[in-house]
Design brief:
With 149 residues, the protein is of the alpha/beta class. It contains three helices and ten strands. The chain folds into two domains: 85 residues, no CATH class; 52 residues, no CATH class. This is NAD/GMP synthase domain-containing protein.
Length: 149
């Protein structure tokens, strides 16, 4: 079994790309892969989580939630003295592209503000749709008391 520890930055379509690559590598090596990805913001990078496990054929067996820290168990069955096969487990539904982008913005802002030690953010609002979206992101990231206008 391969265990792959990652800090793979988010970009749109990353989940599908990641699963395709894991499928190819598992089939090439004929080994199951446990892929562990970090979550959160670090400077200009944002990480989406989405840790998972594929079997030796590249079939998805377990998929952790995107944009949430947590533990996701992977059960292994020993099929011979040297072979361990991951068993089907929880597969969290994939996040829609728009929701994923929104989560990336919220996560990036929250972690940047918190890790920088800022007390909050100051927003200048014009009343347009862009101001409304900026305010929604800030409130979701920092709560209603973390925003000043």
């Amino acid at each position: 079994m391969l265990v792959s520890l990652h800090a793979s930055p988010y970009h749109q379509d990353k989940p599908a790309e990641r699963l395709r690559l894991l499928e190819e590598h598992a089939q090439d090596t004929q080994l199951p892969i446990v892929y562990v990805n970090t979550i959160g913001g670090q400077d200009e990078l944002v990480f989406d989580g989405g840790s998972c496990c594929v079997n030796a054929s590249g079939e998805l067996q377990v998929l952790a939630p995107y944009w949430q820290a947590g533990l996701m168990p992977v059960q292994l069955l020993q099929t011979s003295a040297t072979v361990w096969e991951p068993q089907p487990g929880e597969i969290d539904p994939e996040v829609e592209p728009e929701e994923s982008l929104y989560c990336a913005l919220v996560t990036g802002l929250r972690d940047y503000v918190n890790k920088s030690g800022f007390e909050g953010v100051v927003l200048g609002l014009s009343g347009g749709i862009d101001s409304a979206l900026s305010l929604a992101i800030a409130v979701d990231a920092l709560g209603p008391n973390g925003c000043r206008r």
